[in-house]
Amino acid sequence: MEFEDQINQLNDMIKNSNNIVFFGGAGVSTESGIPDFRSKDGLYNQKYDFPPETILSHSFFMSETKEFYKFYRDKMNALKYEPNITHIKLAKLEKDGKLKAIVTQNIDGLHQKAGSKCVFELHGSIHRNYCMKCKKFYDGEFVFNVSNTGIPVCSECGGIVKPDVVLYEEGLDDEVVEGAIKSIANADLLIVGGTSLTVYPASGLIRYFNGDNLVLINRDSTQYDHLASLVIHESLGNVFSKID
Ligand SMILES: [Zn+2]
């Protein structure tokens, strides 16, 4: 099918739906310039003694907090990035009452920055940080701008401040997962974009979809292409810039 026909079909599906859910992966953020730290040519193996999976693990955070924060501030600081056309169009669809939820694997908060309200952040957010002792909240600036020892410390009690980001070895937040499942199960149109659907929990969550149309937008094929009503092998930006 020609790209133009695919866009027409997608616009028709959106027009006929009032319960859209968008499920997004790293590809949504890379178009804002944020590197995918899981990709081979991303950030890996540059100047650190450990692979990112090790550094971004719970046990590493607990035992090598200073080293963790060195990497975290160097590689995970997405504060300066701006939403792209995909974030913006999705926020508009929600405002128009068409889109009910976004489920994302990204932690950069760009959907909220674009104006989206109902966002299930499966892997947490760099914008939320909590003191491990007294639970006091700290924003992203506090953690990324800290100097001295490099470890952000609570101004109230001196406890170590930890990002509300799901590290390796940690489980997902139950409430977030339940909200995501509920939204997906109730949707009549599920648009999946910017993910190869290989990383847990993406592949598991879309199984809950029971609605009319599953749309997959990804540059490469996925194992779910045959289940979709519409598959568009294009960049998200190219697709969403043509959404009505
Ligand atoms: Zn504290």
Q: Mind explaining what this structure looks like?
A:
- The chain is α/β, with parallel strands linked by helices and 244 residues long.
- The protein has eleven helices and nine strands.
- The protein has helices at 3-15, 26-30, 52-55, 58-63, 65-75, 85-95, 110-114, 140-144, 174-186, 202-205, 236-240; strands at 20-24, 99-104, 119-121, 124-131, 137-138, 161-165, 189-193, 213-217, 230-232.
- The strands form two sheets. It has a six-stranded parallel beta sheet with strand order 3-2-1-7-8-9, with helices on both faces. Strands 5-4-6 form a three-stranded antiparallel beta sheet.
- The chain is elongated and about 55 Å long.
- The two termini are 20 Å apart.
- The mean pLDDT is 92.
- It binds zinc ion.
- Zinc ion is lined by residues 131, 133-134, 136, 154, 156-157, 159.
- Zinc ion binds next to loops.
Keywords for this structure?
single chain, 244 residues, alpha/beta, 6-stranded parallel β-sheet, 3-stranded antiparallel β-sheet, binds zinc ion
Topology record:
Elements: H1 3-15, E1 20-24, H2 26-30, H3 52-55, H4 58-63, H5 65-75, H6 85-95, E2 99-104, H7 110-114, E3 119-121, E4 124-131, E5 137-138, H8 140-144, E6 161-165, H9 174-186, E7 189-193, H10 202-205, E8 213-217, E9 230-232, H11 236-240
Parallel strand pairs: 1-2, 1-7, 2-3, 7-8, 8-9
Antiparallel strand pairs: 4-5, 4-6
The structure holds zinc ion (ZN).
Zinc ion binds at residues 131, 133-134, 136, 154, 156-157, 159.
